[in-house]
Amino acid sequence: MADKQRLLSGIKPTGRLHIGNYFGAMRQFVELQDKYTSYIFIADYHALTSVQNAESLQELILNTAIDYLAVGLNPKKVVLFKQSDVPQHTELAWIFNCITTMPYLQRSHVFKDAQAKNKEIDVGTFVYPMLMAADILLYSPDVVPVGADQKQHIEYARDTAQKFNNIFGETFKLPKEYTPKDSATIPGVDGQKMSKSYNNTIPLFGSRDDVEKAVMGIVTDSGGDFPQHVYAIHKLYKSEDELKNVYDDNKGNYKALKEALIADVEEVARPLREKREELTKDKAYVLSVLKEGGKIAREIAEEKMKEIREKIGVTLQ
Ligand code: TYM
Questions:
Q1: Cα 131 to middle of ligand 1, angstroms
Q2: 169 CA distance to ligand 1 centroid (A)?
Q3: Which pLDDT score, from 0 to 100, does residue 2 have?
Q4: How far apart are CA 94 and CA 20, in angstroms?
Q5: Do 144 and 291 lie in a common domain?
Q6: Of 5, 135, 259, 265, which cross-links 142 as Cys (Cβ 3.0–4.6 Å)?
Q7: Å from CA of 253 to ligand 1 middle
Q8: Whose CA is nearest to atom 36 of ligand 1?
Q9: How high is the pLDDT of residue 245?
């Protein structure tokens, strides 16, 4: 265990997970859990910029923990924890805020988008990349599996690590994202990036009816002989070789192609849903996993923070 490389990643508990989260990130967490010592967390303080109701946040956090376990993360192999259980994340974020300039943060896509839409941006959203840098750098991971939409945030973490190292001396390892090409950006039912905020998702744990509704709603833009948006999603479930026959046999028959996709989505979703239902009945177990994970994460984070506090000069000798 000690010699293994480290992996770290997180998900914001802001709503129902979709297949974009799964293929873009979670599947990698599961596939890599044997190879890496993995730290996977629930980014609940990040969610606070949009979820500001205690009951909802509690429910979303618990659901995300259940989702992680239902997709196959094994708490015996993975340290699974809640960001808010490790106060060192927010402590380090403050330190990063102090060495980062406003113009640098104003270059973030998230900030620019919000500005373009004339949205009033809260301070938490503005400094979001600094909390994310802290999440990552406390654990010195070798890889950070994320979808392409998070790449800029990893760059922020890398730049911030470098800036800190330049000011206070070598402290942080520069993190690398891990984004397999074929799942970097999962498209939604309208062909844009799948995202809760675009209302174009296929829910990961959705019932057959939910999946059917979403798939039947896929915009059937037929650039060539077959519906491109249906195919783009179908490719996640079957190899191009396997799909060739189905798409050749059903040229122009969009309904049949969508039905084939529903069956394939359902085949993956059913066991996940069943596992999820089982876990929902055992809240005590789920809470114990988070508690145990939080304990281990705090130890690692505190060891790193000791070094950081000494480097910046708040520790008196
Ligand atoms: P979040 O919660 O928005 O998304 C969780 C993960 O799902 C990926 N994802 C996608 N990948 C491909 N195609 C899509 N359509 C798609 N939609 C979502 C995201 O890229 C992400 O990997 N800021 C992060 C959470 C976070 C974090 C961290 C991640 C906080 N601290 C430290 C890694 C390391 C976020 O909001 O992800």
A1: 14
A2: 30
A3: 56
A4: 31
A5: yes
A6: 5
A7: 35
A8: 12
A9: 92
> Could you read off the pLDDT of 149-193 as tens digits, one per residue?
999 999 999 999 999 999 999 999 999 889 988 889 999 999 999
Is 90 exceeded by the pLDDT of residue 317? Answer: no
Residue 231: is its pLDDT beyond 60? yes
Cβ(17) – ligand 1 distance below 6 Å: no
Same domain, 176 and 306: yes
Query: 12 and 161 share a domain?
Result: yes
Range of the domain at 246: 196-277
How many domains are there within the chain? 2
Q: Is the CB of 293 under 6 A from ligand 1?
A: no
Ligand 1 near 200 CB (within 6 A): no
Distance between CA atoms of residues 217 and 200, nearest Å:
9
15 Cβ below 6 A of ligand 1: no
Q: Can you give the CATH number for the domain in which 32 is found?
A: 3.40.50.620
Residue 16 CA, ligand 1 centroid: distance in Å: 13
Do 92 and 201 belong to one domain? Answer: no
pLDDT tens, 2-18?
579 999 999 999 999 99
**Which domain CATH number covers 263?**
1.10.240.10
pLDDT tens readout for residues 267-291: 999 999 999 999 999 999 999 999 9
Confidence of residue 222 (pLDDT cuts 50, 70, 90): low
